Amino acid sequence: MVQKLKNYIGGRWVESSAANYTPVHNPATCELLAECPDSPRVDVDKAVKAASAAYEEWRSTPLLNRAQYMFQLKTALEERFEELVAMVVKENGKTRDEARGEVRRGIESVDFATSVSSLMRGYKTEDISTGIDETAERQPLGVFAAITPFNFPLMVPLWFLPTAITCGNTFVLKPSPQTPISMQLLFEILDDLDLPEGVVNLVQGGKDSALAVMEHPDVIGVSFVGSTPVAKIVYETCAKHGKRVQAQGGAKNYIAVMPDANLEASVANIMGSAFGCAGQRCLAGSVVVAVGDAYEPLKRELLKRASGLRVGYGLAENTQMGTVISDQSRQRIEGMIQEGVNEGATPVLDGRGIKVEGYENGSFVGPTILDGVTPEMKVARDEIFGPVLSVMHVPDFESMVQVINQSRYGNAASIFTSSGKYAREFKYRIRAGNIGINVGVAAATASFPFGGQKESFFGDLHGQGQDAIEFYTDRKILIERWL
Ligand code: NAD
What we know:
By secondary structure, the protein is an alpha/beta fold. The protein folds into 2 domains: 7-249 and 456-477, Aldehyde Dehydrogenase, Chain A, domain 1, CATH 3.40.605.10; 253-437, Aldehyde Dehydrogenase, Chain A, domain 2 (3-Layer(aba) Sandwich), CATH 3.40.309.10. 39% of the residues lie in helices and 23% in strands. The chain has 16 helices and 22 strands. The chain has helices at 41-59, 63-79, 81-92, 96-113, 116-119, 155-166, 181-192, 207-215, 228-240, 263-275, 295-307, 327-342, 378-381, 397-405, 420-429, 465-471; strands spanning 7-9, 12-14, 21-25, 32-37, 123-129, 132-140, 143-147, 170-174, 200-202, 219-225, 244-248, 253-257, 285-291, 346-349, 368-371, 388-394, 409-410, 412-416, 434-437, 453-454, 457-458, 473-481. Strands 14-15-16-13-12-18-19 form a 7-stranded mixed beta sheet, with helices on both faces. Helix 2 packs antiparallel against helix 4 and helix 3 crosses helix 4 (96-113). The longest helix is centred in the first third of the chain and has 19 residues, at 41-59. It is globular and about 75 Å long. The mean pLDDT is 98. Nicotinamide-adenine-dinucleotide (NAD) binds next to helix 8 and helix 9.
């Protein structure tokens, strides 16, 4: 019997009233892992009601006691670390080491939440007028929700839930229906913590469940991570319904390589950026812009290293690159490679149609390098979200800056150089929210906000860091005079 996933509402596992269930497959082995309900509005309503009912008692629970749950959560995640890793690999397709990195990053967000007590302080000024004092205090706001993507099934929900609830809010999570099982495990762990009923709730489902969350009058704010078209919908829908919203969208990340870069170290970094997680990272380097004489040696080295990558099942020994999320995704990526070729790019390494022994029906796309890509080509403009690296050649620094800044996305950009002058110019002028200097994946750690500009982010306050505290609390102003 394949397990039918349940929702977690008001401290209990409850069956969804969904009419439809979506199969969840292991994208390498094709094994049917579970069936995910497409939870209807009524389920979302129950979850939000449970979260609303829990709010007053939870917000008045002493902050240090709320933070204690985060210490317990951290311990429990460490204890079940490898189990979580294996589940991320099975439902997502990445490699075991990549999943380890993901779970570790998720735990770092829980670490961050333990310090909320010192981060949500207010401030006070005495004698703002004669005998009058003025205070700004931070208060939680109510029920927050998160809608999260498939590519980091454990880490992304942990960007939000721990900080939101430690600030004193209650929470409803709607994860991706493509990777819902990691969240079942997380909520089993949360259930063991004996949090008061209704503080955390899980509703499994797809876009209809997400819409019900965004339209619910009792949800105060929504954290979203996913593709740009959906981020726009989420931003607009939440605004229309009077909610706070932070919507992190898709990306097209450029990596510039100057002729003075350390070639070997740069290529090692670029490989990880372009082909890590099979290119399914919002920070994945997708276009490498070789400046001047960097082009020929860089292309040669990239080709050599990428051809040697061992593609396979994430849980198998020695695998260096796993699958993409689904067969549908594989077909979409292969279609985009073909569009690049049709527009004049040369596939110097073509990962289409590769077969992995023992996993012949798996959703594999091999590492692909497209050479001769120009800025107007679709492969240079649109997010591919697969293991495809486009190579562009420009004559100088100025042309490189122009090419990168004309992208409609602004999630991340990196430069490889040994010149401090170029590095500073790059950081100063490039319109992207996460900048790497000799770093291929410029991923903000938990105490810094996760950047993102242009069509990669909609909102004001980013996820993580002090921005998260601001997002999940409001400042109330108190003006007092005692006669
Ligand atoms: P997606 O946009 O398809 O789905 C994300 C979430 O939105 C899922 O929970 C999904 O069920 C829900 N959803 C789908 N359609 C919806 C709709 N019309 N209305 C409301 N909700 C809807 O994204 P995905 O394919 O799961 O994830 C990959 C995308 O996420 C990539 O574009 C990647 O760049 C992006 N991403 C961005 C960041 C970031 O920090 N900027 C991080 C990770 C992933």
